[in-house]
Amino acid sequence: MPTPIETPTARRWGLGGLVMLVLCALAVTVVIGIVRTASAPIEKVPVAASSHAEPEPSSAKLYVHVSGAVAVAGLYVLDDASRVMDAIAAAGGLDEKADAAAVNLARPLTDGEQLHVPEVGETPRDVPGTPGAVAGGSINLNTADLTTLETLPGIGPALGSRIVAWREANGPFESVEDLLAVAGIGEKVLAGLRDLVVV
User: Fold this and answer.
1) Would the pTM count as exceeding 0.70?
2) Which residues are registered as beta bridge partners of 62?
3) Which of the residues 90, 120, 149, 172 could staple to 99 if both were Cys, CB 3.0 to 4.6 A apart?
4) How do the pLDDT tens digits run along the chain, 199 residues long?
């Protein structure tokens, strides 16, 4: 029986079939990989906190004793950046007898102070330990020492010394307007002091 002769065409078909088989196998492998990736759970990566995060608010506190003409006098714990108006608000606000003009609402508070809100017609009281400082945050021109006077805006050592010298030469100030008689104090300086001082 004659042996069949392998022609070039037959060889091409055999090689082509092998290539097709390999390509099909690769395609199946790729498809399986895609399906597995799509069905796998997505892992959440935590985001690192930004170095520009907002700073945490300060935990420092002020203890302030509020007394006088307020709704509820007592000891209040306030944030360290609080002002007189915050302490009065914590105490329920001013009552109907309060002399609001005698209190500097914008003054920053200090830890351990007593804030006294006077009634209308009440004589301002000196605050112990601070010569010339009166309850409510004002400064008494007739009792303040040089150091206390220098805490006022626009008043340095020179003007403070002149205020003390004028007081010693002429007696107590009778009104805040008398400051105009002190050399170096004009209307502009007086305007900045008017709500901060008393006599």
Assistant:
1) no
2) 78
3) 120
4) 554 555 555 555 566 666 677 776 666 776 666 656 555 554 444 444 444 445 455 567 888 888 888 999 889 999 988 988 899 999 999 999 888 887 888 888 878 788 888 888 876 555 544 445 554 557 888 888 888 888 888 888 888 899 999 988 998 888 889 999 998 888 888 888 888 888 8
Q: Are 90 and 115 in contact (CB under 8 A)?
A: no
CB burial readout 23-47, b (16+ within 10 A) else e = eeeeeeeeeeeeeeeeeeeeeeeee
On whether the CB atoms of residues 64 and 76 are closer than 8 A, the answer is: yes
Phi-psi region of 155 (alpha: psi -120 to 50; beta: other; left: phi over 0): beta
Among residues 69, 178, 75, 179, the alpha carbon closest in space to that of 125 is found at 69
CA contacts within 13 A on the Cβ side of 151: 17
Q: Please, is 167 exposed, middle or buried when counting C-beta atoms within 10 Å of its C-beta (0-12, 13-18, 19+)?
A: middle
